[in-house]
Design goal:
Helices cover about 45% and strands about 15% of the residues. It has 26 helices and 22 strands. Strands 5, 6, 7, 18, 19, 20, 21 and 22 form an eight-stranded mixed sheet that branches. The chain has a four-stranded parallel sheet with strand order 9-8-13-14. α8 links the parallel β8 and β9. The longest helix has 29 residues. The radius of gyration is 32 Å and the shape is elongated.
């Protein structure tokens, strides 16, 4: 039922949809809630499979909370949209003109069209950027504006996003999910498509590159994976085919910006930033910033790099400017403002301040210069004491406060717990410079309030989102866009790999191997807890406990414990390794680090690879079954499924990764980690077993996934020298040490080397390890000393493990030396 106090987007009266909503409303009515529920389960699976997330700071769900989306789109009529688009183009043009004046002649300040205090007290006004004129005078390459509808149905602007507007990636993902969830309805409604908007904006950016290059190098600058919209950063980088970089990936030399790659420095012509402008340069803008590039501002000043949006453009996000935009529009554009801003009073002027203090309970008080963590204040909801304190703060520093009229946000239907209810919405619309004017995305990001009674529309506060369907008019194609008029070549791809990317690929390979090794270890030892002979076990409780003690998972004192206590300790440990992600070196712990490395490579991983990784994570519950009798079988089922999905993940990584330098670093990490795991396993299982080692040989082969290979090759009973030959010296077994070291030597030889240095320390270490393996044999390593221990094997493996750790350090020092963040390595 429509709310009489606000505009209802879908209904003109109870049960009567608006004209442009009729097709959607009728289709949803025919579908019914049950089928809509089923359809939306598919939609939510798509969101999880595609890894669509939004990082909520301090959220108990973690920094990668699944994106909240409602299946029912917001529908906008074509004629109404034309009015919105024209108003957004005008506003973007106006704000760009204001920026050009504020960072140039400042005639608006001189003529007092804008108060000087509103500019010079603004921390977002960057004085070092004064007189830096971007190409063609375009400060705003991308623009976002938040719109809300008043009670009479008129649209109002409630905020401008001029610094690094977020949401276009989420809007496109919402469209992809919506079109796949409701494909028939989507086609019937003839919805305008979004893809062309991204092509036009990208081509226009490329055309702005300095020095007239036809194939400029463009990068997308992100604050990093902890940023709230990092998913969108990686999504846009992949969609546009450009590198996603952090500040540490770039450097400034001779007033030029360069990307650090394994092959050396590569010049950068254009930076699309998703980093607040003041954080971009710790040398001139914000000294405490650890995210920027020293000297970046000077490179921009010299005209050697273009930044979108221009540094300093965040000054127009100040709410106080809204009070002056109507007069500025008349002065700068000679036009009336097509879409009004919400009524705004800047308290730095005596008249507006007096009005605000007299009508305090009717208004919303906001900081004039928005900062993170500051929220609007509703005086009507405050106690008398709090209102008095607010009055005193405004009187003491009036220039810091802005008052705005409370907007009765319109409502739209949402799917909530199996029923349709109404929620308040805000629409964010996006515009991009297309080379001649601004092009508006035919749609946008509709955000939904947290609760039916709440006017708070914020993703950080738990709000949701909707797809936005702009209907095509009669005789109009569903794809609505300005004809492309810019011709530029595609961005060049030199194949150079940023060092940070190589670092993450290296550790992705290592953590993937650690997860698989953990799964195979627990899976092989679990049968030792069963007393049933038909459980298919080849491991005893004694050998399982011995192996876990030697791997430093269990204390040495357990050897003298009773059988019952030993069984309990082993079972408890294996359960923790499966179900406790907080335990260091557990499967879940390594899986968390695997996900972290993969998250920073999201733009390079195929969608199928990402989906399988999601399935690997979902395969591991965080709590064990309460019933001890069911626990072993449940753990075995979890591990059996995990082996399959991990194999699929490894296969997709191998088959979908281009055979370039990045793939070699992925393989380096994988082969290095597998060599370490095999070395540690053999050292723990064979070098000083307090009993005959032959019963343990089958377990070692099973953990190393080499049981069938052994039976096929040797056709005999298990013998130590043959097992060592298969797992150490064999060059054909893909699980052996010899195979891993040969692969390491091959990959290291193919990685580009700096011509200024001679030789390669990693290469020499790998070759020395391979030579040591090839110089020995299974018979040599299986010789026992007077005490019955395999002292030769112990000495050999100890040296090899040390060599492999040195190799890992050498690879990091040679190729990732500019990275300051240390990795937490597992001790062996």
């Amino acid at each position: 039922m429509p709310n009489p106090n606000c505009w209802d987007e879908a209904l003109v009266a109870p049960g009567v949809p608006r004209k442009h909503w009729r097709k959607l409303a009728l289709s949803l009515h025919r579908m019914g809630l049950d089928q809509l529920d089923r359809r939306w389960q598919v939609g939510q699976q798509l969101i999880r499979a595609n890894g669509i997330t939004y990082n909520v700071y301090g959220d108990t769900q973690g920094m990668e909370r699944p994106w909240l989306m409602d299946p029912i789109p917001l529908v906008i009529d074509d004629q109404e949209w034309n009015h919105i688009a024209a108003a957004v183009v005008q506003r973007a043009t106006l704000l760009n003109s204001v920026l050009a004046d504020l960072y140039g002649p400042r005639t608006l300040i001189q003529r007092r069209a804008l108060p000087a205090a509103l500019l010079f007290a603004n921390p977002h006004f960057l004085r070092p950027c004064f007189d830096i004129v971007p190409p063609r005078g375009i400060y705003l390459h991308n623009y976002g504006v938040d719109l809300a509808r008043s009670r009479d149905g008129s649209w109002w602007v409630i905020s401008d996003r001029t610094q690094a507007p977020s949401g276009i990636g989420y809007a496109l993902e919402n469209r992809m999910v919506s079109a796949r969830t409701l494909p028939g309805i989507f086609n019937q409604c003839r919805v305008r498509q979004l893809a062309r908007f991204f092509e036009v904006s990208r081509d226009a950016l490329l055309a702005l590159a300095p020095r007239g290059r036809s194939n400029p190098r463009i990068v997308l600058l992100t604050p990093g994976p902890n940023n709230e919209t990092y998913f969108e950063h990686s999504f846009l980088a992949r969609h546009w085919g450009i590198p996603l970089v952090e500040g540490a990936d770039l450097t400034v030399r001779d007033n030029c910006v360069f990307l650090k790659t394994l092959a050396g420095l590569e010049s950068v012509d254009l930076v699309v930033r998703r980093l607040d402008d003041s954080y971009c340069d710790p040398l001139e803008l914000r000294g405490e910033s650890l995210l920027g590039i020293p000297g970046f501002t000077q490179a921009v000043r010299a005209g050697n790099v273009v930044v979108a949006n221009a540094l300093g453009s965040g000054v127009m996000e100040t709410s106080g400017h809204m009070a002056f935009l109507p007069s500025l529009c008349r002065e700068l554009l000679g036009e009336e403002l097509r879409m009004p801003s919400v009524a705004t009073w800047w308290c730095g002027q005596e008249g507006p301040r007096k009005y605000v203090l007299e009508h305090l309970d009717e208004l919303v008080i906001k900081p004039a210069f928005p900062q993170f963590g500051q929220h609007p204040v509703f005086p009507a909801l405050l106690s008398a004491t709090r209102r008095k304190e607010l009055r005193e703060r405004i009187a003491a520093a009036p220039e810091r406060y802005v008052a705005q009229e409370q907007v009765a946000l319109s409502t739209a239907p949402v799917h909530d717990g199996g029923e349709i209810t109404a929620r308040h919405i805000v629409l964010r619309v996006f515009a991009a410079w297309d080379g001649e004017s601004y092009t508006v995305m035919p749609g946008g990001l509709t955000r939904v309030s947290t609760e039916a009674s709440s006017l708070v529309v914020s993703m950080q506060m738990g709000g949701g989102s909707k797809d936005t369907w702009v209907l095509a008019g009669s005789g109009e194609h569903a794809v609505a866009h300005r004809a492309g008029h810019i011709h530029v070549e595609q961005p060049r791809s030199t194949g150079a790999l940023p060092s940070r990317m190589a670092d993450n690929l290296f550790w992705l390979g290592r953590y993937a191997e650690r997860v698989e090794a953990g799964v195979r270890l627990v899976r092989a030892l679990l049968p030792g807890l069963s007393g049933e002979e038909d459980f298919g076990r080849i491991v005893s409780l004694e050998s399982a406990a011995h192996l876990l003690i030697e791997l430093n998972y269990l204390p040495e004192e357990l050897r003298a414990a009773s059988m019952q206590q030993r069984r309990w300790q082993v079972e408890n440990l294996l359960s923790n390794l499966v179900y406790d992600p907080a335990r260091a070196s557990s499967i879940g712990w390594n899986l968390k680090h695997l996900r972290r490395a993969a998250w920073q490579l999201k733009e390079r991983l195929s969608e199928d690879t990402w989906r399988v990784l999601q399935q690997v994570e979902e395969a591991f519950p965080t709590s064990a079954p309460a019933n001890p009798e069911a626990r072993l079988m449940a753990m075995m089922n979890v591990l059996d499924r995990a082996v399959v999905t991990l194999s699929a993940f490894a296969g997709l990584l191998a088959e979908s990764t281009t055979r370039g330098v990045g793939w070699r670093f992925l393989e380096l990490g994988k082969r290095l980690e597998r060599a370490l795991q095999i070395s540690v396993l053999l050292r723990a299982g064979l070098t000083r077993a307090p009993f005959e080692v032959e019963p343990l040989l089958g377990t070692l082969l099973q953990i190393a996934d080499s049981s069938i290979t052994y039976r096929t090759r040797y056709l005999t009973t298990l013998r130590t020298e043959y097992v060592l030959e298969l797992l150490v010296t064999s060059g054909s077994n893909p699980r052996s040490l010899g195979f891993q070291l040969a692969a390491l030597v091959e990959h290291l030889a193919q990685i580009p080397q700096d011509s200024s240095t001679e030789g390669s320390v990693p290469q020499r270490l790998a070759e020395a390890a391979l030579a040591a393996v090839r110089a020995t044999s299974g018979e040599d390593l299986s010789v026992r000393d007077a005490d019955g221990n395999l002292a030769g094997l112990e000495h050999f493996l100890a040296g090899l493990v040390g060599n492999l750790h040195d190799l890992s350090d050498a690879v990091s020092a040679r190729h990732f030396s500019h990275l300051t963040a240390a990795r937490l390595s597992q001790s062996y």
